[in-house]
Amino acid sequence: MDAFLSCLDDGPTASPPRAAPPPSPALSARDLYSFICSGPLVDRIGYTKEKVADSIGRWLRCGVDVARLLRLDELQLSEAEKARVYQFYIPVFLWCEDQVIEHRAKYSEGDDIPPLVIGVSAPQGSGKTTLVFALDYLFQVAGRKSATLSIDDFYLTAKEQNELRDRYPGNALLELRGNAGSHNLQFSVETLESLMKLTKEGIKMKVPRYDKSAFGGRGDRADPSVWPEVEGPLEVVFFEGWMLGFKPLPNEVVKAVDPQLEVVNNNLEAYYDAWDRFIDSWIVIKIREPSSVYQWRLQAEIAMRADGKPGMSDEEVMDFVSRYLPAYHAYLPKLYKEGPNGSKPDHLLVIDIDEGRNPRS
User: Fold this and answer.
1) 23 has a pLDDT exceeding 50
2) Where is the Phosphoribulokinase/uridine kinase domain (predicted)?
């Protein structure tokens, strides 16, 4: 192992530097090996120190790919950037890749193999969208076709959301998009079923997208002309959302959290058949305290406004997030204790994150 590590000490060629927090020294392969092994996810993805050593070249190549995707200088990463790349994104990618390989091994040569759907359940602002962005890119670089979906892509249109609000006057949890009941479940089933049929070259479809910036941040489904197109054969679909895997609870339990949650809880009954039944492998990002969502969501809206898109004001963010908190308080404990509906231990990766959105032991 030492001889192998020493031959990699020079590392890859650096990309042009960019303004960044105070950097750490450029990592040698030997330093990188120790840093990877100290990460909280290595054991959880089934990697021993020997397996890390045998695959260190792969870790280096993936690190370069992720750093450049995120416009980081791969040779001068800050400590936070280094942790995000080598102790979070790459371990999760390697776990996902193993899940896809296992899934495809169940089929015989010549079979039409449907893509593996990996669900990513994580609270708003916790970094799931960037994680999925990185995972999708790493699969593409590895030559494995992938697609991404969010539960946001199945929100009701702005007109339908207004109609939902009018059906439940005074219920703040259904006034805006977000909670169970504010999605077009039939549309989501049709989309997922179509993606499962992308098993051959040349078969294409457009994947829906939602525009959160429309109507001053209240959102609307994006015009189909801007939906991305994906082509088979797909190997994996990443499906992410803040409430994926939530399970209905007895009504008296949710009413004790918030009486307005009762109708949301009843709506949740239909979500397993619409979403969870398609998901074979799960990533659950676990947070300590739901109130962290306020700050994370605020950061996301600030970034949206900085990108020139209209977003919610700080006050609107506070109001918006308050409509999700009852569901977090009601459903997260059971999700963390039991896992999502239909999940199996060998196909479930739970990642505890801190307030900086990095994995913790």
Assistant:
1) no
2) 117-242
